[in-house]
Amino acid sequence: MKIFNLPEHKNSVLQLLGAATNLSAQFTKDLNAGNIRAVNNNSILRKEIVPSPGQKQLIDEETKKIVGISDFTEEVLPPSEVLIVTGIRIGYATHTDSKKAAVLSYNEAFPPSVRNAVLRIRQEEDVKYTTSLSELINVNKDFANLADEIFKLKVPFTLSGGSNIKFELDYPKGAESLKDKKEYLEIVFSGYKATR
Hints:
By secondary structure, the protein is α+β, with helices and mostly antiparallel strands. The protein is 15% helix and 39% strand. It has 4 helices and 8 strands, in the order ααβββαββαβββ. It has helices spanning 6-19, 25-32, 112-115, 133-136, and strands at 37-49, 54-57, 81-95, 118-123, 126-132, 151-160, 165-171, 182-195. The protein has a 4-stranded antiparallel sheet. It has a 4-stranded antiparallel sheet with strand order 2-7-4-5. A hairpin with a 2-residue loop joins strand 4 and strand 5. The chain starts with 5 loop residues before the first helix and ends with a strand.
C-alpha cells in the first residue's frame, strides 16, 4: 500500500506552478512569499448547448459563477488563484425544458454531433488543452462513483487567474441539435486550486 507523501506532493504542485506561464503579478508575489497553498478542487461547467457546425463559446453571460452551473466568473479566474487540472470528466443530458443545467444527472449517451466535437481551452490565445470529446467519454458503466469516471490527463495543465480564458467547443460539419429536446453538457475539471 502506497502512503501519501505530503511534502513530495506539495513540491510537485509548486514545481508545476513554477513552470506555469501567465501567472498574475499578485499570484507570483504570494507564491514567492510562500503564501500559496494547494487544495483539492473540482471546478464545474454545465451548459445548455445547441450543436451546429463551427465554434461555440462555453463561458458566457449565462455561466457566471452560479452554484450548480459554473465555478467560473465569465472568462476570468481571480488573480489570486491558479487551477491545476489533472483530469476531466464529461457528461451529457437532455430535457424537454431550458434552464435545467443544475438539476440533471448527466449520464446519457452522447449523440454523434456532440461526441465528435473538439474541446479547446485557451488562455490569452495560448491553447492549454485540446481533444475530441470522444476521447473523454468513458464507455464503462460499472463505476462505483463519479470520481472513477475522471479521465486522467497525461500532462496536467494550469489556468491562471487574472487572464482571459476561453472554453471552446468546435462542432463538426453536419452537426445538428435534437429536434424535440434541449441538450446539456457537463465538464468537470479535477485537480487542485492554488490559492492564498
